Amino acid sequence: MTDTSLRPVRAVVLTAMTAVSLFTVKPLFAQADTPVRVSGSVATFHGDTLSVRDRDGRELAVRLQKDTPIRGVTLANIADVKPGSYVGTAAIAQADGTLKALEVHIFAPSMRGAGEGYRPWDLAPSSSMTNGTVGSLVVGNGRTMVVKYSTGEKTVIVPPDVPIVYLEPGNRSLLVSGAHVLLFAHKDAQGALIANFVSAGENGVVPPM
Fold first, then answer.
1. For position 209, what pLDDT does the model report?
2. Cα separation, 206 vs 74, whole angstroms
């Protein structure tokens, strides 16, 4: 004979176990979906497979898809940043609430809107990335720019020694042996790295992002 008085208890236990399972699985999916950052130089590029030698000397194989965006990276300077320019900057927060830039990249007009917003970044401890449109800009001792995005804005101080580069649409011809690259990739079901995009330095330029 079944004790029906236990059914509510069992139901509560099963519901709790289900909730625990859901909250346990979700972070695992989030970790799997986290893009992998790869920075280094091109070892080889054959077919759709790009082999990158990272800063630790390891060679990582990354597969490119037919439509994987390639970005060319060239040198620029603060004079190339103007009100209305679409830029990105890795930076560190200062005590007064402003950001101190670690690098600045200027997007070509056709790339306006790419990655817009403010998010954590891994260029340095506690660094962030802000992509948006330059509102006001003061080029002087302060070299201060206000970067606006859809949900807010950040005031960024650009020190004189900070690298500034220009990003423009490129192609696979930039992926020659020795070229410096920065890319983000995701893993497929078999664990292979698939590039989301590749930024490649032209004429020896090292992508600073």
1. 84
2. 9
